């Protein structure tokens, strides 16, 4: 288990979260919002994990670059992350693509999303930059990664996951020597390089990078002047530093934060409907792999003011009950039964309905005599009386977004087509 501490390196660092991606594999869940803004675990948004890691690590300067359909994400951060105080040398900047470099240029890539805001970054004078992806679920102490970066004398330190070698074909993969110095970086290789001494495992990039700010600014300016560059960390900046500088791998197991109840180094990319559903439903386990109840490493978020959750009716066949489920404030379970289900805030489930293995996003209203199994229901959907999902695969696939493993994503336009 990583030692939990904050130190002077984190106080001299700025976290910069890349949160502009759509996340198209989440299908209709990202029709109106960017992937980092998608709700997760009843109360949080996906981006809250990277932001909370930075805050809990002791970093007090944070920038978030947004681009694709950013309103939901920006509104969430304005409501939930507005407690930073300049008089304490703290800052929280939301940085939409605003054509600051050129009137016809949005963020062209991940490196460009930092380059276009260099003047803002440098005005704060951080000694180190921690570049983060805003769309993964994990708990990590970045202070420990900063310490390794300084102690190793690296030009860049890259956060890496140890994954089974042939499962690494969808990642950027590091070839390293015995001291974890990166000797090659390859994107989505068909034959991933193995970890020295562990031929069945490979090191996959987490999209987390640590740099000294002054050096990063120099490399970004040089990259911006190169017409052949795609302006991307993984495609341009990192391969350049592997070839011409010192790039070092930082293993996630060295800085993963785990409570006494967590047995694995938990990291999830919830970028598909199946992965998103599975990660949420896993939280209903008695001892889930991810402990959201760890008060020593809280996941900060916007907490809406809601009344208590309520369960009503106690008649046979019409009993408000929840088993192995997470139920948020503002929910009313009225004569309905739920099992292995997550109810986000302000959900109403009416009499004689049953939900099993359902991920229900905020403000959903479910009418009477509904039966739902293995579903994800988007925000503010109204489920009509008598709807049955999870019993007839062919019918489900005609009406909703059904994955190969049988998970159905339900949105309001899909419901509207049923009733039109």
From TrEMBL:
Pathway, per record: Glycan biosynthesis; glycogen biosynthesis
Keyword field contains Nucleotidyltransferase: yes
CDD domains tied to this protein: ADP_Glucose_PP, LbH_G1P_AT_C
Protein name: Glucose-1-phosphate adenylyltransferase
Keyword Transferase found: yes
Residues holding alpha-D-glucose 1-phosphate: 107, 172, 187-188, 205
Lineage: Bacteria, Pseudomonadati, Pseudomonadota, Alphaproteobacteria, Hyphomicrobiales
Reaction catalysed by this enzyme: alpha-D-glucose 1-phosphate + ATP + H(+) = ADP-alpha-D-glucose + diphosphate
Subunit field text: Homotetramer.
GO biological process entries: glycogen biosynthetic process
Residues flagged as site, Could play a key role in the communication between the regulatory and the substrate sites: 67, 106
Top EC category: transferase
EC annotation from Swiss-Prot or TrEMBL: 2.7.7.27
């Amino acid at each position: 288990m990583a030692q939990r501490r904050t130190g002077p390196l984190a106080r001299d660092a700025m976290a910069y979260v890349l949160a502009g991606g759509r996340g198209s594999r989440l299908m209709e869940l990202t029709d109106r919002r960017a992937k980092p803004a998608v709700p997760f675990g009843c109360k949080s948004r996906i981006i809250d994990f990277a932001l909370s890691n930075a805050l809990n690590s002791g970093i007090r300067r944070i920038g978030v670059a947004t681009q694709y359909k950013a309103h939901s994400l920006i509104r969430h951060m304005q409501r939930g992350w507005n407690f930073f105080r300049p008089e304490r040398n703290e800052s929280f900047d939301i940085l939409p693509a605003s054509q600051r470099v050129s009137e016809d240029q949005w963020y062209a890539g991940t490196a460009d999303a930092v380059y276009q805001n260099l003047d803002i970054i440098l005005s704060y004078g951080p000694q180190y930059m921690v570049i983060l992806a805003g769309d993964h679920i994990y708990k990590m102490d970045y202070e420990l990664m900063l310490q390794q970066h300084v102690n190793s004398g690296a030009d860049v330190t890259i956060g890496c996951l140890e994954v089974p070698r042939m499962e690494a074909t969808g990642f950027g993969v590091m070839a390293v020597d015995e001291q974890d110095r990166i000797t090659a970086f390859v994107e989505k290789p068909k034959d991933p390089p193995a970890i020295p001494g562990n031929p069945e495992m490979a090191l996959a990039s987490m999209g987390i990078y640590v740099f000294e700010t002054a050096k990063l600014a120099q490399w970004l300016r040089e990259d911006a002047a190169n017409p052949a560059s795609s302006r991307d960390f993984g495609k341009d900046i990192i391969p350049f530093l592997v070839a011409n500088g010192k790039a070092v791998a930082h293993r996630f197991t060295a800085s993963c934060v785990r409570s006494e109840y967590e047995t694995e180094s938990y990291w999830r990319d919830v970028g598909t409907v199946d992965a998103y559903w599975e990660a949420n439903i896993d939280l209903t386990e008695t001892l889930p792999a991810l402990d959201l109840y760890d008060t020593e490493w809280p996941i900060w978020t916007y907490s809406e003011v809601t009344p208590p959750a309520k369960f009503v009716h106690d008649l046979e066949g019409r009993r408000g009950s929840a088993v192995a489920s997470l139920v948020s404030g503002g929910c009313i379970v009225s004569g309905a039964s739920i099992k292995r289900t997550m109810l986000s805030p302000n959900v109403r489930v009416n009499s004689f309905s049953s939900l099993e293995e359902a991920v229900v996003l905020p403000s959903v209203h479910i009418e009477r005599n509904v039966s739902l199994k293995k579903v994800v229901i988007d925000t503010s959907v109204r489920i009509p009386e008598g709807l049955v999902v999870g019993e007839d695969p062919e019918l489900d696939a005609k009406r909703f977004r059904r994955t190969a493993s049988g998970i159905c994503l339900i949105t309001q336009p899909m419901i509207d087509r049923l009733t039109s």
